[in-house]
Amino acid sequence: MKLRSTETFWPLKYAMEVSYPSIDSDLETEILIIGAGITGALTAYKLINEGKKVIMVDRRDICNGSTAASTALLQYEIDISLHELIKIRGLQCAVDSYRNGKKAIFDLRNIIDTIKSDCQFEFKKSIYFCSLKKDLPFLKAEFKSRKENGFDVSWLEKWDLEKLGLNALAAIESKTAAVMDPYQLAQDLIQYCEKKGMQILDRTNITSTQDHKGKIIAYTDTKFKVTTDHVIHCSGYESTETLTEKVVDLKSTFVITSESLPDLPKAFKNAVFWDTSSPYLYFRGTQDNRIIAGGGDEEFKDPKKRDKLLPKKEQFLLKKFQRKFPNIDFKIDYSWAGTFGETKDGLPYLGKPDPNKNEHYVLGFGGNGITFSVIGMNSILCSIESKKHVDLEYYRFHR
Taking 60 as the threshold, does the pLDDT of residue 378 lie above it? Predict the structure, then answer.
């Protein structure tokens, strides 16, 4: 499965600092992580710090799947609004999921500080706005739900948004959000884990796994094998190749990045923006004074069809941005497309699909993939040790 088009911003900005070998012999380890993106890197960080013996493999170069296409908006809000999620999953699960997302942002900051990653992490406010009168009741219901459940939010009227240069009717302002460079953080995490003893193999494609005498044997397309006690799949949207249960609807998403501006507009220094439209649009700034705009999702995953549509989507996103921020001169410098997916309740899938097999998954689908990965990181040991954890129940398979 081709997860993204060729040109994305992060790998171009940072040339690969480190290269890793592919597999050239049979190996044995305690834990095998399949997938060397931000999810695999966070999972490895947790396990290495717990003294586990870990091998990480990826079929591509390290961090060159979906991580290289991520725009890394870190929000506690998920793709399904709180008041709707309460109806779908109940009050406790819904509120806890939003709280988990908030905690994950601070957990992530602590990790970044610990490994001293230069991933340009910045706390921001989150502005969730609507442009159509028909969406106002929805936005007001969401504001009420968040207030009632203890979230620090403010209501912004049209004139408040005008001060930000945003052409919209109203918005919910949340106090906790962030942005960063996910490609750099994943690279830094993997290098940290390597120094702690993790073996990393890129261009190593696991084609199948087999239980054998209490162990799992993972076979590669080059006829080598890795024998392990546990396999952890951090393969994102490609997990659909190994799961029997359908857990995600795959689609295509599109992104444009501006030229570096002389000075980043004040609004983008302090906040990220996303709207109530379906599919929603989102806008964020970068430390080198660029603006990223994304969205315009399409209900298909065909890579050729997706990439062919990119020029049209560039103009679509540009026009949308110009309508929202008419006073900002956005000139496209980079664009890309990628595979995106949403679950039925907007929540991740964590743990073991089959309780009788030591194959675990950390799948943070949707617009909150990175914060979901932190949540998965925090429960992975319980999954390995077959201990109860509330998140393994909330985000279990076959729910």
Answer: yes
Long-range contact set of residues 212-221: C-beta below 8 Å, sequence gap at least 24: 216/32, 216/357, 216/358, 216/359, 218/32, 218/34, 220/23
Q: How far apart are the first and last CA of the chain?
A: 26
Task: Report the alpha-carbon distance of residue 35 to residue 17 in Å, rounded.
Answer: 19
349-to-221, 234, 264 alpha-carbon distances in Å: 27, 11, 37
Contacts by 131-135 with C-beta closer than 8 Å and gap 24+? 131/167, 131/168, 131/169, 131/275, 131/276, 131/277, 131/324, 132/169, 132/276, 132/277, 133/169, 135/169, 135/276, 135/277
Q: What's the angle, vertex CA 86, arms to CA 81 and CA 87, rounded to 5? A: 105
> Residues of the chain with pLDDT > 70: what percent?
96
Query: Against a cut of 0.85, is the pTM above it?
Result: yes
Per-residue pLDDT for 6 more than 60? no
Angle at alpha carbon of residue 82, lines to 172 and 360, rounded to 5°: 125
CB proximity list for 119: less than 8 A, separation 6 or greater:
112, 180, 181, 182, 184, 185, 188
Q: Closest by alpha carbon to 336, among 286, 294, 298?
A: 294
pLDDT at 13: 60
List CB contacts of 39: < 8 A, sequence separation 6 or more. 234, 236, 362, 363, 364, 369, 373, 376
